[in-house]
Amino acid sequence: MSTTLDKLKSKLYDVNAIVAAITIMDWDQQTYMPKGGAEARAEHVGILSRMAHELFTSDELGTLLSQALKEVDPATDEGAMVRVTQRDFELRTKIPSSLVEEKSKLSAEAHERWVEARAHNDFQSFAPILERMFEIARQEAEHLGYTDHIYDALLDQYEEGATADDCVRMFETLKANTVTLVRNIQENGEPIDDRVLYGNWPEHKQRHFTEVLLHDIGFDLDRGRQDTAPHPFCTGWSIGDIRLTTRFKDYLGSAIFGSLHEAGHGMYEQGSPMAWDRSPLAGGVSLGIHESQSRLWENIVGRSRAFWSRYLPPLQAEFHELQAFDLDQFYRMINKVEPSLIRVEADEVTYNLHVLVRFEIECDVLTGALAVKDMPEAWNAKYKEYLGIDVPNDANGCLQDVHWSMGSIGYFPTYSMGNLLSYQFWTVLQKDLGDTDAMIAAGNFEPILDWLRTHIYSKGRKFTPKELVLDVTGKTITADDYAAGLNAKYREIYRI
Amino acid sequence: MSTTLDKLKSKLYDVNAIVAAITIMDWDQQTYMPKGGAEARAEHVGILSRMAHELFTSDELGTLLSQALKEVDPATDEGAMVRVTQRDFELRTKIPSSLVEEKSKLSAEAHERWVEARAHNDFQSFAPILERMFEIARQEAEHLGYTDHIYDALLDQYEEGATADDCVRMFETLKANTVTLVRNIQENGEPIDDRVLYGNWPEHKQRHFTEVLLHDIGFDLDRGRQDTAPHPFCTGWSIGDIRLTTRFKDYLGSAIFGSLHEAGHGMYEQGSPMAWDRSPLAGGVSLGIHESQSRLWENIVGRSRAFWSRYLPPLQAEFHELQAFDLDQFYRMINKVEPSLIRVEADEVTYNLHVLVRFEIECDVLTGALAVKDMPEAWNAKYKEYLGIDVPNDANGCLQDVHWSMGSIGYFPTYSMGNLLSYQFWTVLQKDLGDTDAMIAAGNFEPILDWLRTHIYSKGRKFTPKELVLDVTGKTITADDYAAGLNAKYREIYRI
Q: Which class would CATH give A108-496?
């Protein structure tokens, strides 16, 4: 029995080594690589990706996997490892290579067309290729298989077991609560002036301040580091080597909340058991659970009054412009709500409404209820309805995201799942730990991190995301905790 | 015909991609990797090294290579590519895997023993394992094959075609000239006081100054970069992506001459034709030729009076402590000659005497004329004879270098070859270009770099090192130019 498993593990370590190489090359490309390195980097990554794919989808590995599935006890760690490997194997082998290749070629072309279309604010020039991309997504869904809704097959790639029905349920609650809350804030809320947060902040001071935050909340800088990149991200190739990036902009919150967000991802990755290093069990279990951790540290901890009761004085010591403002003013500024056109710039309250628009449109196009050419009209109507704003053009409307041009259809809801789950987990955490505000205000993050490590991080990929959520919170994903949390927080902030 | 060659090239690109991955992992380990990443890094590099070795020494590649050897015209670039691939293939396949494995295991153990022995100044505890390492080297030499001297087979691995006889000839001239020059300097030279070069120099100022130098001499920072590492090195994975490192120490020359040295290696690598990128023809042809370029830029250009006539004023502007000294004083300081115990800290004049000691000892141990256990005695006697100094202990004597513990026997002479060749190439360059001092003093390095590109860098690995030296200088490697250059330079500096 051990022979099959040992052989399988050994093959998986090989695949992991190549994937680690690709990942470090990608990290380097976004942080330190000189521009002259781009051409060879693309070739190297292309070759290594082919090797990893060939090795992982080989008949030899497939045979070992089938044998192992029969031999191991599913309740053990090794059983779980075989199960997640089987899932990864199926995701990579169920879709025929011809379709994978077609999608890969179309993506390259679609990405260029999308960049042009956005630059020229010309959705119709992009529509035909986007139509083909949705058609490929439909075919992928058929190959992957589903029971109820075509969307389920696509979403499952990013969030195992999640369904369109889950999304409909969660967005129903979200829509009911958030649309009203946003209207209330706009109509009756006491306005917030956050102009002081925009300035010319010295980079080395921002870097130093964010590194203090990383250290304090518990991101282990002996097992990771933070560098600078145009777009913040978290990556890694070992539980002992997790890399974050942040960026320094004129908005002071950009680096601070970017760092806290990525550190949330990073601490999740650092929290896998070392015995699982380089194996399929290490790391985060799904995009939604991952995002719940980045959002928890960014928003629930990092945008709390307690947090800034501790960190506003040192921030003011570094950035004198802030000394004219007290804790209450600062707390309101970093939680300003304002319906806007662009998802990636959205605040915590309006963010999910952006996602809702995309989810509904994806469903309608996939089922044929909406033609791609009519997408702008549908998009703009929904922005008017949910966010109360007029979309002036498609560049700032339905052309703003890169996802569809890459064929990532069914991906968006995981952002909202992360938001909901951050509050859903936090509600339980708070019940268990008691006065978290006092801990945060004292800079005592260890009990919080410990709780998350015990209940989430140390589980790695051992359970499915649905099992994990049920196990930790006693219920399936829900918008209730999120809606309650947001209402309490923002009604107080906006005095409504 | 094109099919064989295309298949071969494609296989070589695959090997190159894995080697690039290993190289970037190694660069990262020495520059940015947090300590927690070490364990997984060793595993990843181990796995990738095995993959690269298996792919490169596969029967499939061997067959393609034999066919290609018959099909391509040796006078063409493709013929040269096949020739160097054949050489690399033989170096990796002639030695049986069992011996490779034995050496690999012994190296790991020997390295640890060496570290301990050096720490406890206890050569005899290291002697038995070193004896085994020399025995493995003897066996390697037999597998690789040689005509005249067992040393030839070992040296050839690092410097194609170079022989013990070449070394004997070059060291004869060197010894005759250098030993006398060093004695003369010690007995009759006007002493040099360089204490001002040791201080607490701010790192960011050192970094900035070295980056200006890199830019000015022509290291292309769009196709490379400089980072910090404990030991300076140059590496790369594409002609468009060459990485240097430097270090910042209390000796101001450490960063400056370290950067110039590595930039010499780097500009050589950057100078390969882009069409050869990722192929076996790109890069430096041998360790000796590579070292000739680092030494040329470090010593001949970088330690010249002309160079500092341009760069002393900006250096003084950064580091005020130097303002009390004029060009002549500064020039003498950075060229101070002092026989010392440690090779890596040796000046330009005494450096080769350190190498000579090692070369003679390697030969004697390999042929059985010297027993390993008697090495310290031989070492100390030679240091007394050639450098005029007493070795107080083995830690600072025959235990100082890492090379033998890794089984790198036959490597040392390439350092001296680099020194000799730097002057040998420079003599021709100067004849071709005329007043190089005027160019250097004007910061006009382009003609010098262009000459080196044309005659050396653009040749990559197309010719053997011996062919290249003969083609560029009209003669085989000789110590004449070096001895003449050093005598002229240092007799003037020491006023003897």
A: mainly alpha
Would you state the pLDDT for residue A251?
A: 95
Consecutive H or E run containing A227: strand A224-228
Convert the pLDDT of each residue in B270-282 to its tens digit: 999 999 999 999 9
Where are any strands of DSSP class E within B164-292? 224-228, 234-238, 241-246
Average pLDDT of the residues of chain B: 96
Distance spanning both ends of chain A, measured CA to CA: 65
Q: How far is CA B77 from CA A225, B158, B163, B452, in A?
A: 44, 22, 27, 20
Radius of gyration of chain B (CA): 23
**Under a CB-based contact definition with an 8 Å cutoff, are residues B25 and B91 in contact?**
no
Q: Chain A partners of B18 at a C-beta cutoff of 8 Å? A: 21, 48, 51
Chain A residues touching B220 at Cβ < 8 A = 36
Tokens of B316: 């003084």
Facing A222 at nearest CB: one of B16, B36, B238: B36
- Which residues have CB under 8 Å from A195's CB, separation 6+? none
Per-residue pLDDT tens over the stretch A312-367: 999 999 999 999 999 999 999 999 999 999 998 899 999 999 999 999 999 999 99
DSSP state of A149: -
ipTM above 0.90, yes or no: yes
CATH domain B123-496 topology = Neurolysin; domain 3 (1.10.1370)
User: Which tokens in the block code for residue B150?
Assistant: 């067992």
Chain centroid, CA A218 distance in Å: 20
CB atoms within 10 A of CB A83: 20
Q: Return the SS3 of B7.
A: helix
Residue A17 is nearest to which of B28, B48, B221, comparing CB atoms? B48
The verdict on a CB contact (< 8 Å) between B240 and A39 is yes
Closest chain B residue to A21, measured at CA: B21
The rounded distance, in Å, linking the Cα atoms of A167 and A154 is 13
Q: Order of strands, edge to edge, in the sheet holding A241-246?
A: A224-228, A241-246, A234-238
Which of A20, A35, A239 is closest, CB to CB, to B222?
Answer: A35
Backbone phi and psi for residue A271, each to the nearest 5 degrees, phi listed first: -90, 0
Give B231-253 pLDDT, tens digit per residue.
899 999 999 999 999 999 999 99
- Cα–Cα dist A318/A205, whole Å: 7
Q: What Å distances lie between residue A474 and A162, A427, A457, B201, B241, CA to CA?
A: 17, 11, 18, 60, 52
Structure tokens at B218: 């022509």
Do the bridges between strand B241-246 and strand B224-228 make them parallel or antiparallel, or are there none, so unpaired? parallel
Among residues B231, B229, B323, B214, the alpha carbon closest in space to that of B270 is found at: B214
Phi, psi for A312 (deg, rounded to 5): -65, -45
Element (H, E) at B356: helix B351-367
- CA-CA distance, A48 to A11, in Å (whole number)? 15
B28 and A25: CB-CB below 8 Å?
no
Which residues of A belong to the active site?
262
**Domain limits, chain B:** 2-93, 123-496
| Binary contact (B36, A224; C-beta < 8 A) | yes
